[in-house]
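Record 1 of the preview.
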Amino acid sequence: MTVSAVKIIQPGEIQGMPDDDTPLLVLADAKSLFTDRAARLDQLSVREQGSPWLEFCAQLSRAQAASLNLVDSAPVSEHVVRESFKHHMPPLSISSAQPGPNFTSVLSSICKAIKQVNSSEKVLQAVEGLLKLAPQDQMAQAHAMLEADDAKVTVEYAPFIGAALQVIWTVRARQLESLVSLHHGESGLCPVCGSHPVASTIRMGDRAGHRYLNCSLCNAEWYAPRARCTNCDTPKEVSMFGRTRDDAVQGECCDDCKGYLKLMLQSKDPLIDAMADDLATYSLDVALADEGYMRTCRNLFFIS
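->
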């Protein structure tokens, strides 16, 4: 696969915070999110002529949806949330918040659900190995994943651990629904939990034309001005690289920091899902790496 520059956006073209009632922070409904993501992954798998990897990811998403009732999230202090947003700090920060006692239950539920639907020897070996770990060892790997200390995470366990962490943080984040208007700032990291984005999406509908970064952990979406590198915030132009102009997924590349983030164009595919479509466009990552660019995002279903 080769890539070519299909567009260069000058910094002055589309930039700045909206001056209308465009929401700056949108939280996900966990049940519909994971169910819809599974359906999208099924669709992408068919498009890729039966990708076992995407089929597995769809199974993981369905297992996530089925484990939501295991999360007994403690109420979040409104004072803490207000003070956090006031000082541009994430109220559910991965540097201070803990996965909590529900983590091992959610992880076990996801693993057991996969055992029932996946016959791959490699997958089943990973599930068995993870279930045999002591709870403290499972938690240690979870902490390492939150801290992006990937060297301490067993590669085969990563999708299951990432899936369980997503469930917990997505449910927790929903508790902030009545306070999202307190977020007014710009950030390259999630204003809810402090995680990296998995991608960015230019939306349709009531948010048409606006770009949102999609959190890799809690699945929140936050407004990000277009024509700006979300990694280094350079005033220089960013380039769009893709296979063709019509591709719904492009690489937004910065020649200042040599980083890139995938940009999902919902106008070209209304069913697009940031995490699912990131998983389905790995060939674009390979091509952009060949061009000298580095990913500035994370996807918790795999570590590189």
